[in-house]
Amino acid sequence: MTAKALQQFDGQLLLKILNTLKDPIWINDKNGNVLWVNQAADDFFSIGDLKGQNVFEMEKKGLFSPSIARLVIEQKRFISTAQITQNNVHLLVSGDYIPDENGDIEYIITHARQLSQAINQSSELEKVESILQLYKQQIRELILQKTQQDEDFYVGKSKAAQSISVWFQKIADIDTTILLTGETGVGKTAFAYRIHQLSSRNKKPFIHLDCGAIPESLIESELFGYKKGAFTGANTTGKLGLIAAADQGTLFLDEIGEFPLHLQSKLLQFLQNKTFRMIGDNQVQQADVRIIAATNVNLVERVKEGTFRKDLFYRLNILPMKLPPLRERKEDIIPLLNFYLSKFNQKYGRQHTLSKNILDTLYNYRWEGNIRELENLIERLVITSPGPKLDINDLPSDFPLQQSQQKLPQIVEEVSLPFYLEQIEKSILIKTYNETNSTWKTAKKLGVSQSYIIRRLKKFNLRISEKELVEE
């Protein structure tokens, strides 16, 4: 239907019905030109004949702000927002478009409704905003309660856990890039997913890409996708990349420190402009995706080494958050043990409990693998132990008890000082190696050479067995 056809249709029943409505109705073409308005719109704005005028020009003149038709044209979707007229009248305005046969915009239909005079008063507006914020917070708390049992990282009452919980609630709806850092197993994936759940994107996809688990030759096609026939061996129909698949949602780039250097400029372009090109395609595409990145390596060091772009680091580091290791929030160890015990008891139909001895032992353990290591250990105990009470004897034979129970040898009258000092050195050597699982790291931590460590291992008859020092 053309503008001329609309004018001819002016006397028909539909337009008569629209003219009876007390709310302003507008019909615009794809360029923002006004084709028709109902009587309510003419009466409300009182600026002469609206037909033929352009909403972009009217917005520039300050007749209203923002133009709902302009937003629909730019975003090509249904829009509903508050609008203020030149007379400081607040309207609730909605707009949508009628597509042509190709799916492009042909006409834009907008509808406005005046808000009550009470809401127009600033005090009432503040009250409404306060109520909306309260509802928003209550909804978030309900989401937290509903998903708490599935979000393992946040079990616990330590100061670190509580401060992180407050932090992620604050930043969930701040639609910008987040960089999570921390050791392996501290819960970066769970943290990223929780941010997604509490954000306005929670109804859209959450997609996880482990940059360190995909071969460098494949990561570009996985992330950006490729067109039909882009390269030999490519899928004959092409492939949608994860960026496109995550449109309107969240893309979690885990182990971002392993992202190939030659592709970092392409990722940077997407972070800056939300645009990208598929492999084998010259057409620039857009995707509205929030990026959450995570790493367990020092990206500042990678920048110094030249393996990570400085500009990409700064673009990722807008909202940085370091997640503490489990040994730095020891108050959460017992709650986590009980949480996973309950979880796996239910999963495997068991009724195990934890003895005081094993609780003390596990509380003092360093948990180098953090929550992931704790979870795996409890699942193993629930499966393999006859029960019902789990004790130290139920721990796996490869569990390093010396980390939690090791004591220095006592001085007795028959023992010389050199022997006693050697026993202390041996104890420290075993403890440090079992923490680092590396003779080089052990030497670095103790401030000696690696060859010195090797010599002491021979002197004390120690050998490496399954990443642990044992006596011959």
Fold and architecture overview:
There is one protein chain. This protein is of the alpha/beta class. It has four domains: 3-117, 2-Layer Sandwich (Beta-Lactamase), CATH 3.30.450.20; 139-324, P-loop containing nucleotide triphosphate hydrolases (Rossmann fold, 3-Layer(aba) Sandwich), CATH 3.40.50; 327-401, Orthogonal Bundle (Helicase, Ruva Protein, domain 3); 417-471. Helices cover 44% and strands 17% of the residues. The chain is built from 21 helices and 19 strands. It has helices at 3-8, 13-20, 39-45, 55-60, 68-75, 117-120, 122-147, 159-171, 188-198, 216-224, 242-245, 264-273, 299-305, 310-316, 333-348, 356-364, 370-384, 402-405, 417-436, 439-446, 450-459, and strands spanning 25-29, 34-37, 64-65, 79-85, 90-99, 105-114, 178-181, 206-210, 225-226, 239-240, 250-254, 275-276, 285-286, 290-295, 319-322, 353-354, 389-390, 462-464, 469-471. A six-stranded antiparallel sheet has the order 2-1-6-5-4-3. A five-stranded parallel sheet has the order 8-11-14-7-15. Strands 9-10 form a two-stranded antiparallel ribbon. Helix 12 crosses helix 14 (310-316), helix 15 crosses helix 17 (370-384) and helix 20 (439-446) crosses helix 21 (450-459). The longest helix is centred in the N-terminal third of the chain and has 26 residues, at 122-147. The protein starts with a helix and ends with a strand. The relative contact order is 0.07.
